[in-house]
Amino acid sequence: MPKILDAINGPNDIKSISTKDYGRLATEIRKFLVTNISKTGGHLASNLGVVELTIALHLFMNFPEDQIVWDVGHQAYVHKLLSGRKNDFATLRQYEGMSGFPKRKESDCDAFDTGHSSTSLSAAAGLVKARDLSHKTNKVVAVIGDGALTGGMAFEALNNLGRFKSNLIIILNDNEMSIAQNVGGLSNYLGKVRTNTKYTNLKSGLETALKKIPKVGDALVTTLKQSKDSIKHLMIPGMLFEDMGITYIGPIDGHNINLMLTALHSASRVNGAVIIHTITKKGKGYDKAEKEPCKYHSVEPFDIKTGKKLNVNNALSYTDVFSRTMLDFGRESEDIVAISAAMPDGTGLTPFAKAYPERFFDVGIAEEHAVTFAAGLATKGFRPVVAIYSTFLQRAYDQIIHDVCVGNLPVVFAVDRAGIVGNDGETHQGLFDISFLSAMPGMTVIAPMNGIELEKMMAFALNHNGPVAIRYPKCAIYLDYTDAIEEVIYGKSQILESESEIALVAVGSMVETAITVREQLKEMGHEVTLVNARFVSPIDEEMLSKVANSHKVIVTLEEGIKRGGFGEAVSIFLMEHGYRDIKHINISLPNQFIEHGERAMLLDKFGLSADAITEKIKNQIG
Fold first, then answer.
1. Shortest CA distance to 456 belongs to which of 501, 500, 486?
2. 589-605: per-residue pLDDT in tens?
3. Which residues are the active-site residues?
4. How many Å apart are CA 302 and CA 311, to the nearest integer?
5. In whole angstroms, what is the distance from residue 476 CA to residue 468 CA?
């Protein structure tokens, strides 16, 4: 029997599929996803959970005229598959291949580039107003998960959408999960809605009974549904969305395609914003992902039968070291508290949370709140450690300046995934933290070269009188020079190898690379000094003066963009202090967004591999 999926090779091909074959198509899609993602890696559980939902949307909408905004976007694989990108899945998340997130440059069927949480409602609102101003009639749908709906930006949008008089359909994909378990008031509220069978049964029974009343039954039902004081207000606490002026439909089974289509057509007739609350199961169709949706949220290539990773790497990561260090310091001091923005597993805080639950706070997908919450704790003598990926810390820029730095509060920022991250692409690379954190008055920015130094930097940060950001990469820890690591002294670098002629001054992850570069340069006959910068802000001016007076060339190496980076700060120092005869070579990343691909390959492409750096130095010094 031919596969139904084979008949879908472009946008809207799905409309030729027979209604009786929808179930088979869903099964084929799940098998396709598991088979392909097991080879390339990617976001699995979230996509398995939205198969029927996405089928219903593609049956309901016409692409690319109609537009979907996928919040975060990692659940858009089924949309990509149904819009004609089936043959691109072999290149998923590979350099110059298909992105794991919606990309307008990839397809006209992708309405908005996404990658961070809680942005879909604002973007969709903009698309609706653009549609109205252009006198068009296309449909606009936003798909947002219950986890993403905890983000403050989503509530800002909802507040605005309550005043809309033009149709916008919001699919609330409620699978009771973000990446970690949902927390907070909204999660509790949705839980009450999900489980309120008393309401749904009473509503259904009451409508049936009323309709049996001769002549007036239908009119009574209509009146009851239109009333703002309807039975929903009696049975569901708050009716949050309706009270905000947004029509609410649900909760309904998000795996029932025909029911979804009925809800979508009903919602399209509303002159305003309308939420369709769907209940789905994350990981549906692959038993291992159903049982452990967090584990199978984002996966490396794996064996389908066992679920085990194919390329097992047991090397200790910087996140592992941070996790262990937090446990050690948490045991020593009850003043240390830890804060996560819905990423306790990814940031390594889960062991701390289990050991010291009263001192661990997961605030949900709310980075801005996390930072100011930490600031409040710091004013009362606690030592908050806020662990957030570099790319997500960008969302709390103002809070770090206004609520932490202005008051010089001792908040520690554990900036995970700093530098090139890899396969998730532009929205997830940690390229900007050096530049935006270093610009903040009073902020100390440091970077460890190995695991031992990360431990020592944590000790320094937890005793420093002011904010400290420790940035570290997504990779295995460097294992050399562990015995040589000195205690961390404010503003001081460490000279690991002292010679003359060329000085390599490297930041964090680039020290390991600089060691290889040094070996290559020495084979060419050069005398090479190696400096572990340690401090990105403030820079070690005493060390720089010493090096500038005794070397012909200074090479700075960092895994961040050039503009506002460490190398630029060194250039300014050399210029302002009259070191015009010394040559400075700035090894850093270009001021651009870097797409998805393997970390090592991207570092080489953008000139940060050892061979590329050695070649550049050789060419510049002649």
1. 486
2. 999 999 998 999 999 99
3. 282, 367, 395
4. 8
5. 23
